[in-house]
Write a structure and sequence with these properties.
The protein has one domain. Helices cover 51% and strands 0% of the residues. The protein has six helices and no strands. α1 runs antiparallel to α5. It is globular, with a radius of gyration of 15 Å.
Length: 103
């Protein structure tokens, strides 16, 4: 069984993903705040706005990252979400084994 690569490492990346999926900040905050397992993280719109500000680079908790990854992709945003997901995987992925042979 192959381990899954981490997709989100910061709140800034989470915002990039939920926007690519068609969510606005206010609606994403409401969606995340409704989840009982995320109550301890205080995911209100003002807090998410500060945590996801450009350049903030705050690390994201695994539970929050999983919830953002699991958010619905709205119709018409499928391709955009796929592009952002592939970009994040490329950013955080490891090198394929064939690349190590040349080093």
């Amino acid at each position: 069984m192959e381990a899954t690569l981490p997709l989100l490492e910061s709140y800034e990346e989470a915002r990039l993903l939920w926007v690519a999926k068609g969510w606005l900040l206010t609606k994403a905050a409401l969606e995340l705040a409704e989840k009982p397992e995320l109550k301890p993280f205080n995911l209100t719109q003002p807090h998410l706005s500060r945590r996801t500000a450009p350049g903030s680079n705050l690390p994201i908790e695994p539970e929050v990252a999983a919830a953002v990854q699991g958010m619905k992709t709205w119709p018409g945003y499928e391709r955009q979400a796929e592009i952002v997901t592939r970009g994040l995987l490329a950013l955080h992925g490891t090198r394929p084994a064939w690349m190590w042979a040349n080093w």
